[in-house]
Write a structure and sequence with these properties.
The chain is of the alpha+beta class. It has a single domain, classed as L-fuculose-1-phosphate Aldolase, CATH 3.40.225.10. The chain is 40% helix and 12% strand. The chain contains 10 helices and 7 strands. A 7-stranded mixed beta sheet has the order 3-2-1-4-7-6-5, with helices on both faces. Helix 4 crosses helix 7. It is globular, with a radius of gyration of 18 Å. The N and C termini lie far apart (46 Å). The structure holds zinc ion. Zinc ion binds next to loops.
Length: 278
């Protein structure tokens, strides 16, 4: 299936019978906390919020989550707050139905269903970023696909599908993935890919760790910018081919600890809020 075929025929919500069964089963018990996550996971998640703001991927909107390290049926996500302001005390635990377990009056992000439904559909995913970076928006609205122009975005070599919320919902919406059904449709659009563009909205990027999801988001944003520049030059644009992308992804993702440490140090020093205590 091509990217455009998906966008046009993205499948209505009524097609999600399997997902509805899964939801019904998991919705029965009252949510129970999985207990305290590893302190390092909370620290990384706070850093991820600030790094993505510092790197221009997130502004006052967008969010990043981590799957709970003690229970794959739980995830961690800030209360509704600008990412640059997130501290450890703002992180809330959710079940995969995206119900906050201990809200204590704290508001939840409207689009938290992105996280719950992608975690449900993709056991390999341990961290998720949802962003509205301006550079990716044209590729979600155009027939020009987003492809890896350089090695740091090699993870895009498997293709980047486009999720069209109008096709998923069967008509116009406010563009927000603000229900479980829309989250399930988005997860189907993502499939086994590392990222999905959202027409007229932004993107979702997944990773096997918080640093990987953050790095992929940073380099996806840069790739969209430089690809648009290359396209604007005219002539033939030569992207990484499939074998180059496969090899480059392995090489790059083996060394992500290097930029992660740099970004984390810079972001935590620059941001105004208090640093995490643990
Ligand atoms: Zn959004």
């Amino acid at each position: 299936m091509t990217r455009r075929q998906f966008a046009l025929g993205g499948g209505g919500l009524l097609a999600g019978g399997l997902v509805a069964t899964a939801r019904g089963a998991s919705a029965e018990p009252a949510p129970a906390s999985a207990g305290a996550p590893a302190p390092g996971l909370i620290e990384d998640l706070v850093a991820a919020n600030r790094i993505l703001a510092d790197q221009g991927v997130l502004d006052g909107y967008g969010h990043v989550s981590a799957r709970h390290d003690q229970d794959p049926g739980r995830y961690l996500l800030s209360r509704s707050l600008a990412p640059e302001l997130v501290t450890a005390g703002d992180i809330m635990e959710y079940d995969l139905d995206s119900r906050p377990l201990d809200p204590r009056g704290r508001a939840a992000y409207l689009e938290r269903y992105i996280h719950g439904e992608v975690y449900r559909a993709r056991p390999d995913v341990k961290a998720i970023v949802h962003h509205h970076a301006p550079s990716v928006i044209p590729f979600g609205a155009s027939t020009v696909p987003l492809r890896p122009l350089y090695h740091m975005a090699a993870f895009l070599g498997g293709g980047v599908p486009v999720f069209d919320i109008r096709a998923a919902a069967g008509g116009p919406t406010d563009m927000l993935v603000s229900s479980a059904a829309l989250g399930q449709a988005l997860a189907r659009g993502l499939g086994e890919h590392s990222a999905v563009l959202m027409r007229g909205h932004g993107a979702v990027v997944v990773g096997a760790s918080v640093p990987q999801a953050v790095a992929r988001s940073v380099y996806m944003e840069i790739d969209a910018r430089v690809a648009a520049q290359a396209i604007a030059l005219g002539g033939e644009v030569r992207y990484l081919d499939a074998e180059e992308a496969r090899r480059a992804q392995a090489a790059v993702e083996a060394t992500l600890g290097r930029p992660w440490e740099l970004w984390k140090r810079k972001a935590m020093a620059r941001c105004a809020g208090p640093t995490p205590s643990s």
